[in-house]
Amino acid sequence: MQANLYAIDGNRLFESARLAVKHETQATLEVLRHLQAIEDRKLHLERGYPSLFEVCTKEFGYSS
Length: 64
Prior knowledge:
- It contains three helices and no strands.
- It has helices at 10-40, 43-46, 52-59.
- The longest helix has 31 residues, at 10-40.
C-alpha cells in the first residue's frame, strides 16, 4: 500500500524521495546490464531485431 505523500512530514518526504531515487538508480543499472548482455550476445538478432534500439522500443516499450 502506498503512503499518501501529502500526509507525511517534509523531512520524511525528502528521505523517502532519496530512497526512491537510490532504488531507481539501482534498477536502471540492472536494466542497462541486461541490455548490454543482450547486445554482447547479439540476442536481438535472433529475435529479428536489427538493433538494440528496436528491442528497447518494440519489445520493452521504451519511447523513441
